[in-house]
Write a structure and sequence with these properties.
Chain lengths: 284, 334
């Protein structure tokens, strides 16, 4: 049984000019201990499909799927209350902008403790001890002191470590990382990726890595899904994808990497392919 | 924090001087002088007029009068009323509790209804609840206070007979003022029915005075909440599996309160200005009515002193708002 199984997910947003389909029939599976990367350009529906699975989309979104199962339980059939018992506890998510993702009015300690208060029976002292333990786990020095700090007193990298600590507070089975390194500078990106991979291996979690960075995919993923304009274009294990991409879009995507640039000009996808060619060449 | 408070206090000094110049000069721009108004319809000889002006010190050059006045202010002397001869500060301290009681009730009503209404409108954005709340807020904001007061008096006091028309408490009750707050004094008096009577006299003026602040607070809360509800940290709060009430009431509202607190502070000025009209309509014996009467009598000392004291109250409230702002928003505190 897969940890997360999604079949034919469709997400539509109601807009002033009619419904807009952001995700169009995406299917995926993630197993325990597996790292799945979802890669694609901006607007390819990678984040939206995961936010839909978490139930975090605004009310203007209409989510339908033939299957939306977590650990065998049907997320669509659940009441909101039952779903909230899973969200934050068994499935956690970290986001792209770590500083903006933490509430500026509360200390980081409060924000970690809050998850433990909602999902566990730990008393105040035990929650505090667990928060210290989590800070040590994600490599934040002086945890006792740092727990009393506000997000604006920390750097972007440290805020992302706080987000990871919060996400891991209840030992989730699945962690969804939505472009966790995009807003960070390169050296910090490497540290955060290494930390995520170390924690994933130690805890045996399923990890879904949403990214547009092929370098991150190569470094982290077991399996890769390539998305374009809300549709799945290709799914393959990481080695096959880099060695012998099947869809024309994936080939174009790989050839658009800056290291493949010829002369002073960076290659782009849109000047080579039309939408029709991309969708026709899709390998699902 | 101490530096922050001292910085805010330093800004008050030029504000205080500016207000004193405005208070001093504006009342003198009005045609007529207190001596002419004191004489009423009787004719006063130019010699007697000049003598009285001299006695009151009003024939001296403007700058000399101002410097005298400013010197007095610095020693806590706000002058004495030309009409009643009583010190301005004594009258103010006697009448201010009535205005403060009315204003406090009004701001409490405005905050207690305005914030939940704004939050509800934001959470149910685009629904009939949102449209009803915002429609009502627009009507409330646009309504002239004097007209709204008269409508309520006609309907609730005249037609239904539920509430009294004017005053602070029924003439049946009498007790010496202890705090100056009728609600508290009526309770302290131990007279049966006195508190109920004081409440019934307070209802309509409170509603009238609260209407505009209520509308402004509801609109500001809605727009602040709409902005905050779209923030990443609200999404994070929801991703933790928190109940919607906690996400909205703790994570979103705390951030949305930052601009709302500023608005509430600014509404205190509106309340004191509104109190002048409301007190006149309901014959509420507070500083609003006292100021209006003294403008008509060209009682320079009262108008100047009253304006300075009201400005002082507004400056104090704004200082408190600034401190609260620092308390709610840790980015300012640190």
């Amino acid at each position: 049984m897969s940890l997360l199984e999604i079949q034919n997910l469709v997400v539509e947003f109601q807009t002033a000019s009619g419904p807009f389909r952001a995700v169009d029939g995406v299917s995926l599976k993630v197993d325990e201990g597996e790292v799945l990367a979802i890669v694609g350009e901006s607007g390819s529906g990678k984040s939206v499909s995961m936010l839909a699975a978490m139930g975090l989309l605004p009310w203007t979104a209409k989510v339908t799927a033939d299957k939306l199962l977590f650990n065998g339980r049907d997320l669509q059939a659940m009441s909101d209350r039952d779903r909230r018992k899973i969200i934050g506890k068994e499935i956690s998510m970290i986001f792209q902008e770590p500083v903006a993702s933490l509430n500026p009015c509360f200390t980081v300690g409060y924000q970690i403790e809050e998850v433990l208060r909602v999902h566990t029976d730990l008393d105040r002292k035990a929650r505090w001890d667990r928060a210290i333990e989590l800070f040590q786990l994600v490599g934040i020095p002086n945890p006792e002191e740092r727990l009393g700090h506000y997000p604006h007193q920390m750097s972007g990298g440290q805020c992302q470590r706080v987000m990871i600590a919060t996400a891991l507070a209840c030992n989730p089975k699945l962690l969804i990382a939505d472009e966790p390194t995009t807003a960070l500078d390169v050296t910090i990106q490497k540290q955060i990726l290494d930390l995520l991979m170390k924690l994933q291996a130690e805890h045996g979690m399923g990890l879904i890595m949403i990214t547009h960075d092929m370098g991150v995919v190569a470094e982290t993923a077991d399996r890769v899904i390539v998305q374009y304009k809300g549709r799945k274009i290709e799914e393959a294990d990481v080695l096959s994808l880099f060695e012998s991409p099947k869809s024309v879009y994936t080939k174009a995507l790989l050839s658009a990497l800056p290291e493949n640039a010829v002369g002073g000009r960076l290659p782009t996808i849109t000047e080579k392919l039309t939408d029709q060619q991309i969708f026709e060449g899709a390998v699902r | 924090m101490l530096r922050f408070i001292l910085g805010r206090l330093a800004v008050l000094i030029p504000t205080f001087i500016g207000v004193s110049i405005i208070a001093f000069s504006f009342i003198r721009l009005l045609p007529g002088d207190p001596v002419m108004l004191m004489s009423g319809e009787r004719v006063m000889s130019p010699e007697r007029h000049a003598e009285l002006m001299n006695q009151l010190g009003l024939d001296r050059p403007m700058y000399a009068q101002y410097l005298d006045y400013l010197g007095g202010l610095l020693t806590g002397d706000f002058g004495s009323s030309i009409v009643t001869k009583r010190p301005v500060l004594d009258d103010f301290m006697q009448l201010f509790p009535a205005t403060l009681e009315l204003s406090l009730c009004a701001i409490i009503l405005a905050v207690c209804l305005g914030i939940p209404a704004g939050v509800l409108a934001a959470v149910k954005r685009g629904s009939w609840i949102d449209q009803t709340v915002m429609g009502a807020a627009l009507v409330g904001y646009s309504m002239p206070i004097f007209w709204w007061g008269l409508l309520l008096i006609i309907f609730f006091s005249g037609y239904l007979g539920w509430t009294p028309v004017s005053g602070r408490i029924s003439l049946m009750y009498f007790f010496p003022p202890v705090t100056g707050f009728m609600l508290i004094d009526s309770l302290l008096s131990g007279q049966a029915g006195a508190f109920k009577s004081a409440v019934s006299y307070l209802i309509l003026p409170t509603i009238v005075l609260a209407t505009i602040p209520l509308a402004v607070i509801a609109r500001q809360t809605r727009s602040a909440m709409l902005e905050v509800l779209g923030e990443d940290y609200v999404r994070t709060a929801r991703s933790k599996g928190l109940a919607p009430l906690r996400v909205v009431g703790v994570h979103a509202l705390r951030n949305a309160m930052i601009p709302v607190i500023t608005t509430i502070g600014l509404q205190v000025g509106v309340l004191l200005a509104g109190a002048i009209l409301t007190e006149t309509i309901f014959s509420w014996p507070g500083i609003g009515k006292w100021m209006v009467d003294s403008v008509f009598k060209r009682d320079y000392a009262v108008v100047q002193g009253g304006l300075m004291l009201i400005a002082g109250v507004i400056m104090l409230v704004n200082l408190i708002v600034d401190l609260l702002y620092g308390f709610i928003n840790p980015r300012i505190r640190h």
